[in-house]
Amino acid sequence: MALREWGIWTENDGGFIEAQIYSTEQGEARLVEYFEEDPDNVGDLSLVEICPDHEQQPKDACEECAAEETDDDDEEEED
Predict the structure, then answer these.
(1) Which residue, 13, 14, 27, 77, is most buried by CB atoms nearer than 10 A?
(2) Exposure of 47 by Cβ count < 10 A (0-12 exposed, 13-18 middle, 19+ buried)?
């Protein structure tokens, strides 16, 4: 079983500001630290699971996986 990895995602910057978090408890603790450090500048931070195949993308919204699925669908239609 693959180890699930989580990261702190910022929508404003469109990327992870921290990764290599291996539990939701650890991630939630890191979010609290960000909120305490800069409460005015953390409104868009969230804890999200990282795509196991594309480490720069959130698992549930991985653009690369979506593109690969589209390519696979196109190939099936050609057969």
Answers:
(1) 27
(2) middle
